[in-house]
Amino acid sequence: MIPLPLAAGLTIGPFALLVLALPVLLLGEAAIRRLPRLARLNIPAPILSGLVVAVGLLACAEWLPGRITLQGSTANAAWLWSVLPQWDFAAPKPTDVERPLLILFFTCIGLNASWAVARQGGRPLLVYLALAASVAALQIVTGAATALALGQSPLLGIMSSCVSLMGGFGTAAGFAPEFEKAGLPGAAAIGIAAAAFGVIAGGLIAGPIAGRLVRTKLGLDPARAPAAAAPDAPDAPPAHGLVAELRELARHPVSMLVHLAALFGCMKLGAFVSVQLQQAGITFPVYMGSMLVAGLLRNVHDAAGGTWLQSERTDGLASVALMWLLTVVMIDLQLHQLAHAAWPMLAILAVQVALIAAIAYWIVFPVMGRNYEAATMSAGLIGFGLGATSNAVATMRELARRFGPAPRAFLIVTVVGAFLIDFVNAVLITAALNLCR
Q1: So what's the pLDDT on residue 15?
Q2: pLDDT at position 234
Q3: pLDDT tens digits along 27-74
Q4: DSSP character string of 241-301
């Protein structure tokens, strides 16, 4: 008798994971379309469907240990070449297979970072940055205080709050060696687990909180919100869903290829810029170099009077990369790291979730204007304050699909969440780390 493959164990490799993410994403979109109650939660399809699969994998790990294994890292030079600081195809050290999707998404943000557009953010952008910086500082203080109250090192509280939540996976990985030197053993594992918790929490609560603000504070519904919230925005919402985005891109094949070439060029050059930043002793997320190069290209293009860079095309490519990226990340969350996490860390994280939810609802919304744009920015702060800017953008896209466009919110949240807050966060974390040594 030939045993079934599952009996001997099934290994899902990195590229199988990439392929698996696509039907998982499509099933999540179908579920949201068919279940109105689910749609009202405003949870992005990649987060919802990816989380369901991650929970299923956790159950398999608990009840059928060793039967299903995920391998989310790869050393394939051809796949990673666009984000490697090398011109040859020598095998690099293993890297998350979704790294090119992550950097592609943030490079798209950089390519849309026109200074002429950014100036439209004006004073609200500075106010929002101040709010985000205040949240980061509060995360450090409350994280350290909660850890001390539980009889733990304040380093655990800082790593489980500002570093992993406002900073995300990249910042947690970047600062982990310094925290271990300062006296926090296993800082990398703690950071990854806390960041995974934040991604889940941010994806699950940002949409419902913003939806409640829109419905209860503003009295808006999906039928009349677009006109009330953004009178100068296009009447029809943008194409939604993976298939719709791909169809729209296919209608402009030459323009799409030109934009892809520009993006990949920025990603490759940005990989070398990131290395220079690291050698200068500056700790930033891995996508920073590519985003800076793309931003430079966009502003040179605008200053020269160019017209070939079109935000609509960049937005479409960013949307596809974002949906695919989030689905892969959610499937590969390794929830067993949370299931077996120490209770003190979970208590710290619970305090952080409650803190940022309260700030978004009771402070960000009124300070930013008590309107639809303010509600969307509240969701954005929860998204990147607990997880990542990609989470924030995914939730805001879901809100825009249901309630209408929020162009200023998208501008402010992406500029602050994907760029400016990283500078502030790095300074705050470094200062806190030095105080706790």
Answers
A1: 94
A2: 34
A3: 999 998 888 777 766 677 887 888 889 888 888 877 877 778 888 889
A4: SHHHHHHHHHTSHHHHHHHHHHHHHHHHHHHHHHHHHHHTT----TTHHHHHHHHHHHHHH
pTM: 0.73
Tokens 């194409």 belong to 239
Whole-number pLDDT of residue 182: 87
Cα(71)–Cα(97) distance, rounded to whole angstroms? 9
Per-residue pLDDT at 137: 96
Please report, for residues 140, 187, 241, 245, the alpha-carbon distance to residue 312 in angstroms, rounded to integers and kept in the order given: 38, 41, 15, 11
Identify which of 437, 434, 430 has the alpha carbon closest to the alpha carbon of residue 162.
Answer: 430
- Return d(Cα 392, Cα 406) in angstroms, integer: 13
Cβ atoms of residues 107 and 267 within 8 Å = yes
Q: Is 12 helix (H, G, I), strand (E, B) or coil?
A: strand
The residue type of 226 is: P
Instruction: Tell me the HSE value of 421 on the side-chain side, using a 13 A CA sphere.
Output: 32
Give strand pairing partners of 11.
69
Distance in angstroms between the alpha carbons of the first and the last residue of the chain: 62
Burial of 92: CB neighbours in 10 Å, binned 0-12, 13-18, 19+ = middle
- Per-domain boundaries in the chain: 98-221+229-436
Q: Which residues of the chain have pLDDT under 70?
A: 1-8, 40-42, 117-118, 120, 170, 173-174, 221-240, 281-285, 337-341
279-318 exposure pattern, b = at least 16 Cβ within 10 A, e = fewer: eeeebbbbbbbbbbbbbbbbeebeeeeeeebeeebbbbbb
Name the burial class of residue 177, with classes exposed (0-12), middle (13-18) and buried (19+) by CB atoms within 10 angstroms of its CB. Answer: exposed
Distance of alpha carbon 288 from alpha carbon 293, whole angstroms? 9
Which tokens is 150 given? 């539980």
Distance in angstroms (rounded) separating the CA atoms of residues 290 and 426: 18
Identify the pLDDT of residue 222.
Answer: 56
φ, ψ for residue 265 (rounded to 5)? Answer: -60, -45
